[in-house]
Please model this.
Amino acid sequence: MKHDSANGAAVRQQFNIGICGMGTVGGGTFTLLQTKQAEITRRLGKTLKVTHVASRRQNPAFDTSSIRFSTDVFAVADDPAIDIVVEVMGGTEPALPLILRAIENGKHVVTANKALIAVHGNEIFAAAKRKGVTVAYESAVAGGIPIIKALREGLAANSIHWLAGIINGTGNFILTEMSLKGRSFPEVLQEAQALGYAEADPTFDVEGIDAAHKLTILAANAFGIALQFDKVYTEGISKLTIADVNYANELGYRIKHLGITRMTEKGIEMRVHPTLISTQRLIANVNGVMNAVVVKGDSVGSTLYYGAGAGAQATASSVVADLIDIVRSSGDGTAGNPGNVPSLAFNSLRNDIPILDIDDIECEYYLRIAAQDKIGVMAQISQVLMNHGINIEALIQKEPDHNATGEVVVPVVLLTGKVQERQMNKAISAIEALDQVVDKVTRIRVELFDGEGN
Model:
């Protein structure tokens, strides 16, 4: 430690890092801090050093022989030598009590735990504010893409109108394979699991829960509201068929699994679901496991953020960036000066804006209707839509085919004009009640994103 000659204050030269969890992200963070130490020091003028690691067992892939090792993660939070705790275990237990313990002990925290932040972030940030420490979480959303920093700092002069993101790489990989190679959902899911993109239980990924956690965090930073995961409408991709993917392509669209949040006159939309996007939009052409987020601000217009949404190096990049930011903003690295950027972008959060129910949103729709091969069926469907004030913008009527019971049916595929979801629900119920309609109507929302930008 050296002293500032101007005022005699001690200047910290080394900041000790404790890592809890040595899996993919923890191991990547440990490696990055070792291999990039010289560059990090050159950026900071100070050294970040891992001095304590905790995991259920030693990971032979990483040499921690010269570092304190614990099987109890709370030993890291209680270690008086540790300045910043990195939590990369995932889940709630023991992550939540660990982070709260670290905060209580006056330590800054960096976490990649999107589920924890989305569900318990309000409690965590309140505790951090009381203790004067920072909880940073850039790596919790979109891996290596600095989207949180963009919303909180780079776009701070903007009122955000909306954002939409491909924020789950597993789902995007599956939809890409279905669209480009004509493969079925079960087949591609099995490959995703074999490649390590999807867990043995893929529910969080394919049913949209993972994306909903991330969207919760993005919406809070975009609009200055509290984290409200329980109010995100969530719909997965497991029921999508090759037929729908192909019909979308024929109409000039791609199906992407999007997280969308939008400020409207009535309130804020927060929803995750399959979405038709024009192939002319850049985000429609984001393929494989890559992530992308489009943000529309009133001053800058639309901006696109693209990159790796997962993986050891990409996510570790964001973890280390958070570590650097904490040291830069906290001066001597101790508690009492958590920096100048609020946890959720705004110094005061708004609690006067309602989160809209999915029935209250307005958008265009893709409908696929299985009808009997009889004269007048299309006229009946059109009449139902007209009765509910819904315009037909495009129509495909395919050749008759046989359904699973051997009945001859005609697939009718159409795109509608913009309408409130509640009204569309009534129209779909009326269509399904027609004698000539033999199955449930498939409905996918369509987004034009104000017809501009990416």
Observations:
- The longest strand covers residues 253-263.
- Residues 2-144+312-330 form a domain with the Rossmann fold fold (CATH 3.40.50.720).
